[in-house]
Amino acid sequence: MHFSKLVNWSHSEFNYLPWRKNRTLYSTLVSEIMLQQTTVSTVLNHFDRFMKEYPTPQHLAQATEEQLLISWKGLGYYRRARNLKKACVTICEKHDGEIPLHYETLINIPGIGDYTASAILSIGNDEHIFAIDANLERVLSRLFGLKELKGPKLIKQIKSMSLLPNEFQSFGGRAVNEALMDLGRNYCKANKTTCDLCPLKYKCYALKNNEVLSLPMQIKKDKEKHELELLRVILKKGNDFLVYKKKDTEWLHGQYEVPTFILKTTDQDLNQYPKIKGDFSALPEFKTAITKYTIKNKVLWVNEVEFKKLGLKIDDYEWGKINLSTASSKAIKL
Ligand code: SF4
After folding, report:
1. Distance between CA 294 and CA 270 in Å, rounded?
2. Residue 13 phi/psi, 5° resolution?
3. Helix, strand or coil for residue 30?
4. Whose CA is nearest to atom 2 of ligand 1?
5. pLDDT of residue 1
6. Ligand 1 binding pocket includes 30 (Cβ within 6 Å)
């Protein structure tokens, strides 16, 4: 297998990524959690700044939730920031601030799951195991013709097979995992492949058997989609805006939003915001999306009298301007 070509390509194209320079176990923990569900280009804009703000697990463990959510802004999926903090608190309290190097110990740390534990060991500590994310699942299933359903069964199969032993021996766990991830991200994508340029094309089961896009096997689900129209009401006093903090049971919990109301939705069960009636069709708008919702945000600037005329009470909210959700930040700039 032309694995050396793949590793050379990966090194020459992607060694500039900041989390690949001066790697430590802690920088691996941070980057791998950031890279779950967020693209490399987005993480590139935030990683160095975040590491300067929180250079050690101790710094992160001591951050308040508010500080941390502000630092995480732009990366999305805020639950990961909370998990990262939980992990750092346990690392400081139970492991003297040092990230342990045993899989069983790692997955018992709150906030660290199978993938992150495997990534710390393989990418962070160069051990000869796979850190199986969606890229590795896809590439390995195509390369070796693995016919298990994508998900836990396929991951279990990969772990049980001792694939690529010579490559691990020659290049180490970090280079093998990084090269396969780069391949999955660039040439061996879910719905489009560039097999002509793939250094492993002569050994690839899926290419040889014309099964590239049918692997990994998966059950196709029709995702339920909903449309949602929201009214964002902006009331400003000095430099502050009228806002409220999102509850634990709501989207974006811990962040602040301007008073927001449902105008229309195709999901009758949605209870994230109160409903409001009126004709706001002429207002300026911008579009966003969250989970299964495509959202049209109507923006209404009001003074205090107009706010009360909507049947709303100023005392139900507070004045502030920090840690606003991305949609609320957009609304006040419209
Ligand atoms: S040859 Fe194509 S399908 Fe096979 S690993 Fe390379 S990019 Fe993926």
Report:
1. 13
2. -85, -30
3. helix
4. 195
5. 63
6. no
Amino acid at 146: L
**Is the Cβ atom of 3 under 6 angstroms away from ligand 1?**
no
Judge if the beta carbon of residue 293 lies within 6 A of ligand 1: no
Classify the phi-psi angles of 43: left when phi > 0, otherwise alpha if psi is within -120 to 50, otherwise beta. Answer: alpha
Q: How far is CA 119 from CA 45, 232, 252, 266, 296, in A?
A: 22, 41, 27, 41, 39
Annotated catalytic residue 137: no
CB atoms within 10 A of CB 320: 15
Sign of CA pseudo-dihedral 166, 167, 172, 176: negative
Q: Measuring from atom 4 of ligand 1, which residue has the nearest CA?
A: 204
Tens digits of residue pLDDT in 36-83: 989 999 999 999 999 999 999 999 999 999 899 999 999 988 899 999
| Contact predicate 171/3, CB 8 Å | yes
pLDDT (0 to 100) of residue 282: 95
Measured by CA distance, the residue closest to atom 1 of ligand 1 is 201
Query: Does position 221 have pLDDT exceeding 80, yes or no?
Result: no
Q: CB neighbours (10 Å) of residue 44?
A: 14
Mean pLDDT rounded to a whole number for the chain: 95
